[in-house]
Design brief:
The protein contains 4 helices and 13 strands. The protein is α+β, with helices and mostly antiparallel strands and 241 residues long. It folds into 2 domains: 58 residues, no CATH class; 179 residues, Umud Fragment, subunit A. Strands 1, 2, 3, 4, 9, 10, 11 and 12 form an 8-stranded antiparallel β-sheet that branches. Strands 7-6-5-8-13 form a 5-stranded mixed β-sheet, with no helix packed on it. Helix 2 packs across helix 3. The longest helix is centred in the N-terminal third of the chain and has 20 residues.
Length: 241
């Protein structure tokens, strides 16, 4: 009995493991594909990298080039920013102070735009207080840290109540920015649907000398979460949801 069992055990140990067989099958398949492609393994590697980049670009992060001076001085013409497309995909919402890229079709124009979020759903945004500052939910916001030098928060007075699910956005270079202020009388009142936001600009990645992370200004972090009840100021343009 023992002498008969020994060769059986040897046969079992010499048979290929299932995982090893599968690995060899995959490797053989890739080898056949590489042989079929012009350029062989180099072409296969390039195609694999391209496919990875396409998936990354579609679902994770995407570079955008700054086309105008509307976000100076922080973002200059020609800068390339990396937009985080997962920032608002798992229940998170854009916050005041975030720099976002959105599809402006039907609202701003047939293009993608980059602006700073000033008001979110439920906010009351007013310009301006006695010191020329924008107020969000009754609190003045000091924008001097990112506002273009020499610019005022706005030369156009406004009073807006931001509907749920939308954003009120402004450029940092207010005198050179077409933003929510310019569309107060248009359908939608200049508000951007959250669903049209492509992602949050997190980094300037090119040119190398401008490489930096884009952070949320502390001034917006101190804004209360809801607008206090108060009458609409007289003489200000109105845009309600």
């Amino acid at each position: 009995m023992d002498t008969e069992a020994q060769p059986t055990e040897r046969d079992r140990s010499s048979s290929p493991e299932p995982e090893a067989t599968e690995d060899r099958s995959r490797f053989a398949f890739l080898t056949r594909v590489a042989e079929w492609l012009p350029g062989g393994r180099i072409a296969l590697t390039l195609i694999t990298c391209l496919a990875f980049l396409l998936v990354l670009n579609a679902f994770v992060a995407q570079p955008f080039q700054i086309p105008s001076g509307s976000m100076e001085q922080g973002l200059r013409i020609g800068d390339r920013v990396l937009v985080n497309k997962l920032a608002y995909r798992f229940g998170a919402e854009p916050r005041r102070g975030d720099v976002v890229v959105f599809d402006g079709t039907g609202y701003f124009g047939d293009a993608d735009y980059i602006k700073r979020v000033v008001g979110v759903g439920g906010d009351r945004v007013v310009c301006c207080d006695k010191e020329g500052r924008i107020e969000v939910n009754g609190r003045p916001v000091d924008e001097t840290a990112f506002l273009y030098p020499g610019d005022t928060p706005s030369t156009v007075p406004f009073y807006v109540e931001v509907p749920d699910g939308t954003l009120f956005v402004l450029g940092d270079h207010r005198s050179d920015s077409s933003d929510s202020r310019d569309h107060l009388g248009s359908p939608g009142g200049g508000m951007i649907p959250v669903g049209d936001v492509i992602g949050r600009a997190d980094w300037i990645v090119w040119p190398y000398a401008h490489w930096t992370r884009l952070t949320r200004p502390a001034a917006y972090a101190r804004v209360p979460s809801s607008a206090p009840a108060e009458p609409e100021p007289k003489g200000a343009g109105a845009a309600h949801g």
